[in-house]
């Protein structure tokens, strides 16, 4: 079999089985050919590689963190949003999997072609709206009876929140999300053909005591132009290419001009709280460091040098004697 190496004893046993009739050569060939056949469903075409799916997942994990921060500040309550899965399925299958009445937000994302659909479970949508109106964040499901005011509040809230997609996608492409449509019945929304492959990123959202799913549906046609950019290799190469000499020089100068504290410690000691409370002006504290021992010089909080005290032009100074053992020496 391909990829396997048989020992001499196994080869002898196989030849013996074939010669005695215990194993049929035609049957063996048939089994091998059957194992090479792999079922492929043309209605469920896989347009994205595993590497690209991982990249899309990573982008929306960042988006979930941005949403969590945004809603936490707006609602002033417990909010937790995280990615649970990323799948590529036909658009028809996605529409069939969501509730018959739900909150659907459609976005244009130029320069990408096509539209992006974000479905918010009514439990989350109502809890969010109730909290914004001054309530406790109670959940309610009456999508079919949405008033004009409720529709306006929800559409405004989600249009502002989901603009964070621009920041989440900034490492791949600069998009300009704009709110295009608000719908409650998925049957009235036909963005692409039923068999078109879409990527569905499912986010689990918890707002106060309410919980539900937020599903982001991105058609393949929208991502087709940037498919090469969704590979990890492209990201690594882009990071290397973007490091221009001018940028490196500017960063180097900024680091060189950064201010950090340098402290020379005369010594230390341990005293009881009682003695500390009884200290007064003129008291002397004996340190555990001799006057002839080198002092420790810290850069930030890290010991870097040893030195000795002195004076330069009638001003107190410290002369560096050596590097602290174990620390890297810099010229």
From TrEMBL:
<dbReference type="Pfam" id="PF02154">
    <property type="entry name" value="FliM"/>
</dbReference>
<dbReference type="InterPro" id="IPR001543">
    <property type="entry name" value="FliN-like_C"/>
</dbReference>
<keyword id="KW-1003">Cell membrane</keyword>
<keyword id="KW-0966">Cell projection</keyword>
<keyword id="KW-0145">Chemotaxis</keyword>
<keyword id="KW-0472">Membrane</keyword>
<keyword id="KW-0969">Cilium</keyword>
<dbReference type="InterPro" id="IPR028976">
    <property type="entry name" value="CheC-like_sf"/>
</dbReference>
<comment type="similarity">
    <text>Belongs to the FliM family.</text>
</comment>
<dbReference type="Pfam" id="PF01052">
    <property type="entry name" value="FliMN_C"/>
</dbReference>
<protein>
    <recommendedName>
        <fullName>Flagellar motor switch protein FliM</fullName>
    </recommendedName>
</protein>
<keyword id="KW-0282">Flagellum</keyword>
<keyword id="KW-0975">Bacterial flagellum</keyword>
<keyword id="KW-0283">Flagellar rotation</keyword>
<feature type="domain" description="Flagellar motor switch protein FliN-like C-terminal">
    <location>
        <begin position="255"/>
        <end position="324"/>
    </location>
</feature>
<dbReference type="InterPro" id="IPR001689">
    <property type="entry name" value="Flag_FliM"/>
</dbReference>
<dbReference type="InterPro" id="IPR036429">
    <property type="entry name" value="SpoA-like_sf"/>
</dbReference>
